[in-house]
Please model this.
Amino acid sequence: MCARLPGNSLRKTNMATPKPLPPIKPRVPIAVQLREAIAGAEAEGHARPDMTLHLTRADDSLLRRDRSVAIEDIRFQDGAMRYLDVRVVVDGVAVSALETGTSA
Model:
């Protein structure tokens, strides 16, 4: 005769098998998003010197740490950061955005 241990019951449970999670799409790097936004603004006739990138602190950090960004793409000039010759401002915005300024 077998001795039963506590918690080792023979009853079956009706637990449904868990559904597999859908695959997670990798996030597009912020550098790529900004590059596309700048290219789109240029296509609309805006000049890079008239543009300003308003970045969240998180996006600024991601941009600075992105190893795929070429050294030539980020510059520090006159106390301001520039990405692809567009001035970068890190302020208290909730979502990063490209301000185009005046049109050409």
